[in-house]
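Case study 2.
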Amino acid sequence: IWEAAGAWFVAVAPTGRVVAACGDRVVRVWDAPTGRLDLTPSCGLESPSRAAVSPDGRWVAAGCGAVTLV
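Prediction:
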């Protein structure tokens, strides 16, 4: 999923359609069937520690130190 530095945490929607991975101060979100990178929100200076994908795959939440991305 992730090149070079690697992902620290990976979450997959129960549908298997959405994959979110944390690392390098960003959360990357892919459409799994196509492999397309859909979203790359930044956590600023913090590195995200966890991610979760909602059961329907419509929402991704990530904890980034004092910031939470939803």
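The chain is about 0% helix and 45% strand.
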